[in-house]
Design goal:
CATH architecture: 3-Layer(aba) Sandwich
Strand content: 5-15%
Distance between the termini: 8 Å
Shape: globular
CATH class: Alpha Beta
Number of helices: 7
Radius of gyration: 15 Å
Order of helices and strands: EHEHHEHEHHEH
Largest sheet: 5 strands, parallel
Number of domains: 1
CATH topology: Rossmann fold
Amino acid sequence: MVVIICGVSGVGKTLVGSLLAKELGFDFYDADDFHSQQNIDKMGVGIPLTDEDREPWLRCLRELIAGCLARDVDAVLACSALKRKYRDALRINDQVQLVFLLGDYSVIAAQWEARVGHFMKPSLLRSQFADLEEPKPDEGAIVVRAGQPVRDLLDQILAQLPRR
């Protein structure tokens, strides 16, 4: 199984994803590690990525997911996947489970203030919310509200994850 923790930048994907992976004994990957230097440079100066910028990145992530599934390696991937078409590209089969961390702009902006050392400029948070397409029921995503204690988020996710 591959669990993809989705949501806007600063919502807590990496923290929640890494802790979830540890708790489940899964491998953990952060999609930020798969961006090209060009994408990192754009975001570093406050320029939002376009769909064209994201295309090679999404292809790389899809290959990662396919490889995990082919090797029967369970993994958690922290990935924004803000638009449905991005999630559709990553959801290879029913062994890929989406988990969406949703929160109001004010909640996420407050979390941004606590972030240290991330390449993405805080000014891009508005563009993230502009691009955000919340998951529809037919996507089968587990949706949890950000801004709660991390343990509560993990417990809600674990309670809803399908068992293998």
